[in-house]
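Appendix C: a fully annotated inverse folding record. The material below is reproduced so that readers can follow the format used throughout the book. The structure is listed first as tokens, followed by the designed sequence.
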């Protein structure tokens, strides 16, 4: 992994994940104005941001604890095909830290928050109500994460955890966004990004 290639990949992924809701917005509203508000890219509240920082610890702690106490879990997390496994094979330094931050904050957290919380969750909530919409987007988020790891492992305990943890994180993020941040996706991005940094950094470089 190189700095330039990872930065380009991150920009490309953010653009792709933003393009989907942008096309839907253009078709529906026939204009680009108001799109950022549509996906929740707007000012958040201090309370929501602080709670997001606290929430990130809850999301990052379970996989870290499981990696420490379960040999099978650790083996999967350090698999060279996984993100944490790739960092585990890198030498710790400025280059690896830069790549970690780009991947944790932008390539995964920012891109996914735009698509899942900024677009899918908001549209589901508007159609079927807050509770049902939030649960459905959380289940979808968990299923996608589980499906990605299912390509490298069939361990039922790992797959169940890799479904539950992202799903719970997605559910809580929507509560922070919609109930405490006036619809801003910033709290979800903060929580998601910080949880990624902790997971990638600790599993990749310290375990």
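Designed amino acids, in order:
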């Amino acid at each position: 992994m190189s700095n330039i290639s990872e930065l380009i990949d991150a920009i490309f992924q953010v653009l792709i994940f933003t393009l989907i809701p942008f096309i839907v917005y253009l078709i529906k509203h026939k204009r680009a104005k108001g799109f950022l508000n549509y996906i929740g890219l707007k000012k958040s509240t201090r309370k929501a941001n602080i709670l997001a920082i606290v929430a990130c610890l809850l999301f990052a702690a379970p996989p870290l604890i499981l990696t420490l106490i379960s040999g099978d879990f650790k083996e999967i997390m350090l698999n060279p095909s996984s993100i944490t496994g790739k960092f585990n094979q890198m030498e710790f330094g400025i280059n690896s830290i830069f790549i970690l931050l780009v991947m944790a904050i932008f390539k995964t957290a920012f891109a996914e928050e735009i698509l899942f919380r900024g677009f899918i969750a908001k549209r589901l909530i508007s159609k079927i109500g807050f509770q049902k919409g939030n649960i459905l987007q959380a289940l979808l988020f968990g299923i996608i994460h589980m499906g990605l790891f299912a390509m490298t492992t069939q361990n039922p305990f790992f797959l169940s955890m890799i479904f539950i943890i992202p799903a719970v994180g997605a559910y809580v993020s929507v509560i922070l966004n919609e109930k405490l941040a006036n619809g801003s996706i910033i709290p979800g991005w903060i929580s998601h990004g910080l949880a990624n940094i902790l997971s990638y950094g600790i599993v990749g470089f310290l375990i």
